[in-house]
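subagent[fold] <- orchestrator: predict structure for attached chain, return tokens only, no commentary.
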Amino acid sequence: MGQIHHSTLYEWMANDPTLTDSIERAEAEAEAFFTAAVTRAAQDPKTWTAAAWWLERRKYADYARRDKVDMTVDLRKEAERVAADLGLDPAEVLAEAEAIMRGVR
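subagent[fold] -> orchestrator:
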């Protein structure tokens, strides 16, 4: 099967309600199939991981894994600190940091 960019698919879906309905129906059927499979597996005490998997996804706020970290950094402030520590021009350090964030460097 060929590959298309997700934006192409979304454009097709926006222009074709039948396609959108078909995709949504297929996704709902797949969800029901896999939910049933996890439910069956979770009934066996040897496969407790299926129950844990279900809880992590259905009750995210209560049971989700906590190995994900959200972090906010004041880039200007950090660039000024680094520049002061290294004796560099803060504007140049900030420009370099922004270029790195954009993937230019």
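orchestrator: received. Logging for downstream: Residues 6-63 form one domain. Residues 17-42 form the longest helix (26 residues).
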